[in-house]
Structures are given as structure tokens and as C-alpha cells.
Specification:
By secondary structure, this protein is α/β, with parallel strands linked by helices. The protein has helices at 32-41, 67-72, 81-84, 138-141, 157-166, 180-187, 192-199, 219-222, 226-233, 247-253, 255-261, 263-267, 279-285, 295-302, 322-329, 339-361, 368-380; strands at residues 23-28, 51-56, 78-79, 91-94, 107-109, 142-143, 146-147, 151-154, 174-176, 206-212, 239-245, 271-273, 288-291, 307-309.
Length: 404
């Protein structure tokens, strides 16, 4: 029989806790992507002496490799899933729809990428689907007629309209909170030089970052040697090259395999950014991003980074989505035009691209921390802490520079 840990929850918790009477919040981490987004939110509450925060990783037969190791590396208290589902929490923090119906307590549900409405036309899990999915669909937000989130955090006002069409009964639970990840990245520009130093970028050098989502039609799926080609084509005396890969690439293929695939690039100075730390800072530090339809490329565009699209997702992308806006407003990678010319073309398009993409990612620029904290403490039934809710600087990057 699976054992329970002696943590701060349960009928006999009062006999072992040092801080009694705390509200209990659980952070649900089914994927590394969801976990990294919730780590942006946690500083809004975890320093409060009235609150105890714990983590849990769903173990239901369809787990992702490496997620529990990622969570344990954050040094939080990790409750076994079978224990978490038998306790009622004062707050459930989630950035994924997975397994929410099994948990007890008011749920704050957020997006785990750019925008709450997904950019892909169909769900990856639906096989040969014929009905479009947006991520705001009734089958994701309800369970046996019960609306799952107590607060559904949306990124933009436009998403309210999408929710009204797809699941109108959830509208009373919806709140436009903006995007805390973008707010933090924009607020971290004053540390750009520090991030570049952490990456080893010499003064006057330009950083070109390849940004790939996961799946076969991503940049890494279609052009696995792109980093190698860039490193060979661009003079090392003026350019550095970095790669940011979606966490699911690392999860599905394994860290050893991914680093092996990049071994020759690493030996020649390409910076491979680990999936759990540093991608935001690397985007702030970048001078040019070559990406695809994934969220990291969209964030780069919203930051004003020049973007060139090397994989647009084709018919799998939903018209009008964030990815569609990026792919329609950024130049496509070409093989008949020199890289310096393509960098200049991306730079010319960057201002308009930034305005369009930023508006598609958030309708509450700079306000996400304040709105989210108010929602969190409303669910906890506690007064908010004194002082303004502030965004933090993103963590400095710690690239894999070589293989042992």
C-alpha cells in the first residue's frame, strides 16, 4: 500500500506543525510547462506566514518523465498524489486541465503558455478530430456538469468572447488577469546585460536564439540541424547561438538523448538552455530569434525581439490565434537570402510584430501580479498582504555549454 508522508495536512497535522492554522495551498504539476508557469505565480503567496504551500504530481498512468524530479528540485514539500486527492485544500493552483476533477478545493486555473486559447486548431489528444478545440471548451472546464475552476484566469478580453461561445456557464468564474510571464520579462530588461554576461556573450556580439516548440512540425522536428547550420554560417567573432527547446522535447526524448543530439553544437559553443530555467532571460538577452508557432517565439515577438519564422505549423494552426499572428507578421526563413539580410528584415518587422503580439497575449499589461494576488486571497478568504504586488526579475540563465 502506498504510504502517506507526515506533512502539514491531515487530521493529526496539528500535532506536528510549527505554524498552526495556516491555509493550505496545493500546486498541481502534471507537466514541466505547467510547473514553470506556476512558479511565476507562487511568489505572490508563499512568503505569507498564514499560508502553507505544497506540491503534487499526478500519478495516474499517463505521467511525463522527469516531472517529479523537476518539482523536487524546487525544494518544496511534495505530497504523493494518492494523498493529495484525499484532502481538501483552501486553494488549488493549476496551469493545466489535467486531473482537476480529482482534487478538492477552489481551483485557480491559468494558461501555461502565451494566451489561454490554444493556437493549434485541434487538440493533440483528440486523434483525427473534426471539431476545433480552443482550450476554453466545455469538456475541459466542466466535469459531470460541475464547473471546475473557481477562478478561470484569462489573458485577454477577446478570450471572454471565445468563452462565451464555447462554455458560457463558466463566464461568472472568468477573470482577465493578463500574463505574469510577459510582465516579468518586460520588467527584466534592465538586467539584459547581466543575462548576456551569464550566457557568456561578449560585448558587441549578437545572440541568435533558435526557439522550438514540440511535435514533428516544430523547428527542431523539421530542422534538427538548424543550430549547426547557423553556427557554421555566422562568424563566431560576432555571433553567438542559443537553443530553447520546449520542455516536452526533453521529457519525451530524455535529457541524455537531447544533449547527445546537440553534442557537436555544444562543443562549438552553442548554448543549450535547460528546460526548467533560463528561457525567459535568454529571450531578453537575444538580438534575433528564429522560431516557430510556439509560445516562446510569441513571447520573443511581444518583447520586441526581431523574429524569423522557420516552421509555421501549416493548417494545424488556428486562424486568428497568437501563433497565426506571429507567422503572418514575421518574415519566414529563406534559403536564397543571406542571414544578415534576413536579420535586417526581421528587425524592420519587429515593431509592428511586437504591438500585434503583445496585444494578443495580454489585455492587462503590467497588472497580472496585482490581479492574480487579489484572486488568490479571495479564494483563500484572507486579506491581502500589505504593499503592492510586484513582478520579480526572471532567473538568470544557466546554459549547457559543453558535454562531459
Amino acid at each position: 500500500m502506498d504510504r502517506w508522508i507526515r506533512g502539514p495536512i491531515g487530521l493529526d497535522a496539528d500535532s506536528r506543525v510549527t505554524r498552526p492554522g495556516c491555509r493550505n495551498a496545493v500546486v498541481v504539476v502534471p507537466t514541466m510547462t505547467a510547473g514553470t508557469r506556476l512558479l511565476d505565480v507562487l511568489p505572490l503567496l508563499e512568503a505569507d506566514h498564514r499560508v502553507q504551500t505544497v506540491f503534487t504530481v499526478p500519478h495516474t498512468g499517463d505521467g511525463w518523465h522527469g516531472v517529479e524530479e523537476f518539482v523536487r528540485a524546487q525544494h518544496g514539500l511534495v505530497l504523493p498524489w494518492h494523498q493529495a486527492v484525499h484532502h481538501r485544500f483552501d486553494l488549488v493552483l493549476a496551469a493545466s486541465h489535467r486531473h482537476l476533477e480529482e482534487l478538492h478545493g477552489p481551483i485557480l486555473l491559468l494558461a501555461h503558455g502565451a494566451g489561454t486559447a490554444k493556437s493549434r486548431r485541434y487538440s493533440r489528444k483528440a486523434g483525427a478530430a473534426t471539431n476545433p478545440a480552443t482550450g476554453l471548451d466545455r469538456d475541459l472546464l466542466t466535469y459531470r456538469g460541475r464547473i471546475l475552476p473557481a477562478v478561470l484566469g484569462l489573458a485577454t478580453d477577446a478570450e471572454l468572447g471565445a468563452l462565451r461561445r464555447s462554455c458560457p456557464e463558466a463566464l461568472p468564474r472568468a477573470e482577465v488577469v493578463g500574463d505574469i510571464c510577459l510582465d516579468e520579462m518586460l520588467g527584466s530588461f534592465e538586467l539584459r546585460d547581466s543575462y548576456r554576461h551569464a550566457l557568456g556573450i561578449e560585448p558587441g556580439h549578437r545572440l541568435v536564439t533558435v526557439s522550438s516548440t514540440w511535435s514533428a512540425d516544430s523547428v527542431f522536428g523539421r530542422l534538427p540541424r538548424l543550430c549547426r547550420a547557423l553556427r557554421d554560417a555566422l562568424p563566431s567573432g560576432r555571433y553567438a547561438v542559443a537553443a530553447i527547446l520546449h520542455p516536452n522535447i526533453w521529457t519525451v526524448h530524455g535529457r541524455r538523448q537531447v544533449t547527445a543530439w546537440f553534442a557537436d553544437c555544444l562543443r562549438d559553443g552553442v548554448l543549450l538552455i535547460p528546460p526548467d530555467r533560463g528561457w525567459q532571460a535568454t529571450m531578453v538577452a537575444s538580438d534575433w530569434v528564429i522560431g516557430d508557432y510556439g509560445s516562446t517565439t510569441a513571447y520573443a515577438a511581444a518583447l520586441g525581439r526581431p523574429v524569423t519564422v522557420a516552421a509555421d505549423g501549416g493548417s494545424a494552426i488556428r486562424p486568428g490565434s497568437i501563433a497565426d499572428l506571429v507567422c503572418r507578421n514575421a518574415p519566414a526563413l529563406r534559403y536564397d537570402v543571406s542571414l544578415p539580410v534576413q536579420e535586417e528584415l526581421a528587425s524592420r518587422a519587429s515593431r509592428r510584430l511586437s504591438l500585434v503580439t503583445r496585444a494578443a497575449i495580454t489585455s492587462r499589461p503590467g497588472q497580472a501580479a496585482a490581479i492574480l494576488r487579489q484572486a488568490i486571497y479571495g479564494l483563500l478568504a484572507l486579506p491581502e498582504p500589505q504593499g503592492a504586488a510586484c513582478t520579480r526579475f526572471v532567473s538568470a540563465p544557466n546554459p549547457l555549454k559543453d558535454v562531459a
